[in-house]
Design brief:
The chain is α/β, with parallel strands linked by helices and 288 residues long. The protein has two domains: 148 residues, Rossmann fold (3-Layer(aba) Sandwich); 120 residues, Putative Large Serine Recombinase, Chain B, Domain 2 (Hect, E3 ligase catalytic domain fold). The chain is built from nine helices and twelve strands.
Length: 288
């Protein structure tokens, strides 16, 4: 009997519950193993390698286990890919087409144990395309809901997370002023208003040993605490958060947090930035 090497691929979008002794990935794998066992008469045998992507979206091909699986298909180590449901493999119709191309090119096939689909037949492929179209539609609708929620929250002046800006701490998902860092922010704005040059400002901050915000990254490693680059200084000087505002897609809303920079200083800095920007554009135009 010809041996058919079967690879079980499992995926879970969030990391929630992955630390449990028996999690969603284990449940998916157990169902797939049972299905492979039921096909033992056809020579099906599960390979020992595990292809598990925990905490990764099905809307991208950038998944370590999926990449390894595709490489093993190309090398001939895997003849059949077994998944619990189609959307565990991918939620993107375009990505699914790429995966099927790899399977076809290397004589491999794909089976969903709960949906009984097989890519070796035209009808199976049509049904899968229809299913994935709905899966992609569902993902896009969910994305639209998230974007709408973010836009509505920012219109109310809420800070929606991300890197905590210099001058603030995050408490209960709200920005509160870190007075020690706020002094640095005010210094940056005040000195730019006096110097009128980001280059001169950067040089002065370097001489004074002023450093960027220090953050605790993954694994407890500290990041930041470095000299300010010109790019970062430009971002700070244009950041509406420091004026007590929240910006979203070109719109500016009053924020729920306290401003670090007063209205007069903010206006002076924005006027100087605009004037310098126009002067650079004129200089470039004259050279052209």
């Amino acid at each position: 009997m010809t041996r058919v090497a079967c690879a079980i691929y499992t995926r879970k979008s969030s990391e929630e519950g992955l630390e449990k002794e028996f999690n969603s990935l284990d449940a998916q794998r157990e169902a797939c193993e049972a299905y492979i066992t039921s096909q033992k008469h056809a020579g099906w045998l599960a390979v020992r390698d595990l292809y598990d992507d925990g905490g990764l979206s099905g809307g991208t091909m950038e998944r370590p286990a999926l990449k390894r699986l595709l490489a093993d298909i190309k090398s001939g180590k895997v003849q059949i890919v077994v998944v619990y449901k189609v959307d565990r493999l991918t939620r993107s119709l375009a990505d699914f087409a790429k995966i099927v191309d790899v399977l076809d090119a290397h004589g491999a096939s794909f089976v969903s144990v709960t949906q009984q689909f097989n890519t070796t037949t035209s009808m199976g492929r049509l049904t899968l395309n229809m299913l994935l179209s709905f899966a992609q539609f569902e993902r896009e609708i969910a994305g639209e809901r998230i974007r709408d929620k973010i836009a509505a929250s920012k219109a109310k002046g809420m800070w929606m997370g991300g890197n905590i800006p210099l001058g603030y701490d995050a408490r209960d998902r709200k920005l509160v002023i870190n007075e020690a860092e706020a002094k640095t922010v005010r210094l940056i704005f005040r000195r730019y208003a006096e110097l009128g040059s980001v280059t001169l400002l950067q040089e002065e901050l370097d001489r004074q040993g002023v450093r960027s915000k220090q953050r605790e990254g993954a694994g407890g490693q500290l990041a930041g605490g470095r000299p300010f680059s010109r790019g970062i200084l430009y971002l700070i000087l244009q950041n509406h958060l420091y004026h007590g505002e929240v910006e979203h897609k070109g719109n500016v809303y009053p924020g729920q947090h306290e401003a670090i920079v007063d209205a007069d200083l903010w206006s002076v800095v924005q006027d100087k930035l605009a004037a310098n920007r126009k002067a650079r554009e004129l200089a470039v135009g004259a050279k052209a």
